[in-house]
Design brief:
By secondary structure, the protein is mostly beta strands. The protein contains 1 helix and 7 strands, in the order H-E-E-E-E-E-E-E. The strands form 2 sheets. A 4-stranded antiparallel β-sheet has the order 2-1-5-6, with no helix packed on it.
Length: about 120
């Protein structure tokens, strides 16, 4: 069987819509342990917040943004970011190491995470 391009686009868009409606929170931590597909939590989570905004899904691209205010997470090094479906526990969608950033009260930080979903045939 061969799926049409229309079917592949529908599968792609359904997957991206699932991201947009299921995953609602971003978290940061200070653990630099290598990323692994078996990760279920951040190495050392320090702050979790509801997304400030999301865009998409448009053509399989979904972006979520987390704002860390000048009053939040001060004195910590941001080394890792994760996306979750719950405000305190839940399922982690991803874990990404970042360039180490020492957060201070002088900094307002925006973290944008973008997922591109592609459906292909084998």
């Amino acid at each position: 069987m061969t799926l049409t391009n229309t079917a592949l686009a529908a599968i792609r868009d359904a997957a991206a819509t699932h991201l947009d409606t299921t995953y609602t929170h971003a978290a940061v931590g200070d653990d630099a342990t290598a990323e692994d597909a078996t990760d279920t939590t951040l190495g050392n989570e320090q702050l979790r917040k509801t997304f400030q905004e999301t865009t998409g899904p448009t053509a399989g691209v979904w972006t979520a943004s987390m704002r860390i205010a000048t009053t939040e997470d001060n004195g910590n090094n941001i080394k890792e970011v994760g996306i979750f479906d719950d405000p305190t526990t839940g399922t982690m969608l991803n874990r990404k190491l970042t360039t180490v950033f020492a957060k201070t009260a002088s900094d307002e930080v925006w973290i944008d995470v973008e997922f591109t979903v592609t459906a292909v045939q084998n």
